[in-house]
Specification:
By secondary structure, this protein is an alpha/beta fold. It is 46% helix and 17% strand. It has 14 helices and 10 strands. Helix 2 links the parallel strand 3 and strand 4. Helix 7 runs parallel beside helix 9, helix 10 crosses helix 11 and helix 12 crosses helix 14. The N terminus is likely disordered.
Length: 336
């Protein structure tokens, strides 16, 4: 690994390192880096990890490093993937806290200060925020309040990876880094942290603009991303003593394949999953997240159920006011 450091003397005094893995994002990188270095009072450093880009990403990063002086560049000798890049970048970070974003995102002014203050106030190991989509897709990923974090984590990440801030020293003390769960390495890390007692705090203010375009991981690998997220959820359920049967696993994963299950088989799997997870569905939020989780599978099924048909099935599982609440949340949230 070739590492080029351009900020000398004051590196160790940074409050926050901003970790940016970059691959073929030369046209967006300057705006992303500039956005992290503006509008915050805390001392920050940017760590850019180039993953074997074939465009001018490295040249752009070097120009920015000369201009700003508080930038370090880590160059992978070849394309090694997002997980390796994240962990190499994490190893290069020296500040007590590490903020995440991608090389095509925009960090809003005040983000680092707001998250740093929240983490110190709550003694948190991880902090996420809401974020806005722009580009090929618009909308907002609204993260839940703190009290609903665990319930949300049963079924999906509670916040976008690009909004994360981590206590680097907390991770290092427990020898933790990003697990090898392709396309959902963040979700896997949040679960591992939760299982070893990490405190999380969430800010519902949107502090990041997440760019969506054809080359985005979330766009080009959406099917594989959802399948891997399902497998990651299964792992958490198992750790909590709720082991999904092979039939549940196969049926849910097949929903996002070229050979989806019969609608009746899917519905039977969802009913079985409801029985399995009932000990954890002990709050309105957890049950709403469960309904939302089920709705995702029903919506993508080739049977093309309409809202009334989906609501009728979900109503048989949970019913009444909960269904109305959960369905309203799902319709308003275009994360999927």
């Amino acid at each position: 690994m070739a590492a080029l450091a351009f900020w000398r003397g004051c590196c160790m005094s940074a409050d926050v390192d901003v970790l940016i893995p970059a691959y073929n994002c030369a046209r967006f990188l300057e705006a992303a880096v500039d956005s992290t270095l503006a509008g915050n009072s805390c001392r920050s450093r940017v760590v850019i990890v180039d993953d074997g880009s074939r465009d001018d990403t490295v040249a752009c990063a070097k120009r920015l490093a000369i201009q700003h002086r508080n930038i370090e560049i880590v160059e992978n000798e070849r394309n090694m993937g997002i997980i390796t890049s994240l962990n190499r970048g994490l190893a290069a970070c020296t500040a007590p806290f590490v903020a995440r974003m991608d090389g095509d995102d925009i960090c809003l002014p005040g983000r680092l200060d707001a998250q740093l203050a929240a983490m110190k106030r709550e003694s948190a190991a991880v902090c996420g925020t809401s974020m806005d989509f722009f580009g090929a897709k618009s909308g907002r990923w609204l993260c839940p309040p703190d009290y609903a974090y665990r319930a949300t984590l049963l079924f999906r990440p509670a916040f976008g990876h690009s909004t994360a801030m981590l206590d680097r020293q907390w991770l290092a003390a427990r020898l933790l880094d990003y697990p090898a769960h392709l396309y959902c390495e963040d979700y896997a890390l949040w679960i591992v942290m939760e299982l070893v007692g990490a405190r999380a705090t969430l800010l519902q203010t949107s502090w990041l603009r997440y760019r969506v375009h054809a080359q985005s991981t979330s766009s080009s690998n959406s099917r594989r991303q959802i399948v891997n997220a399902c497998e990651t959820s299964f792992g958490l359920w198992e750790k909590l003593g709720m082991v999904p049967s092979p039939q549940i696993r196969r049926t849910l994963v097949a929903c996002h394949s070229d050979s989806p299950p019969l609608l009746n088989d899917l519905q039977e799997a969802l009913v079985a999953m409801h029985r399995l997870l009932s000990p954890a569905l002990d709050s309105l939020w957890a049950r709403a997240e469960f309904v939302r989780f089920c709705a995702v599978f029903l919506i993508v099924h080739p049977a093309r159920l309409n809202r009334r048909q989906i609501a009728a099935f979900l109503g048989r599982l949970e019913g009444g006011g909960l269904l109305s609440y959960a369905w309203r949340r799902f319709v308003l949230d275009d994360r999927y």
